[in-house]
Amino acid sequence: MIHITRPAAIVAVIATLAVVGAVIFFISSKPSQTPVDGRELYVRYCASCHGTGGRGDGPASKAFRRRPADLTRVRERYRGQYPVREVMAAIDGRSPVRAHGDSAMPVWGIVFEQEAGEKEARWPRRTVLLQTRLIAEYVLTLQ
Prior knowledge:
This protein is 55% helix and 0% strand.
């Protein structure tokens, strides 16, 4: 039979509580699993239509009457400037973008918000803004 002294038992209980507390803190403070990489988001949401290289030649592009935008030429269309706000608005889709016309592009802002709500994100609107911004910044790398 193992004999444990009272101080050793107290130390063991405190150590166990500390470990359990640390695990609970880690789990409860863990941020939502929102991808924080623009390329990953682009591949997940945009590449099927716009293609991995952004040229509007994704596998789903053949299903449209009008080819998806060539995202490698955004800067060219804006005379050398990269209009990050306009690109973000186009991605979000909740504000009409004149260049889209009657767009077949999904309203990603609503999709992102719904996904954030399903994941119980602490700040769903910030999550949507972050995702939109990351995709827009990735599109800039395609120029």
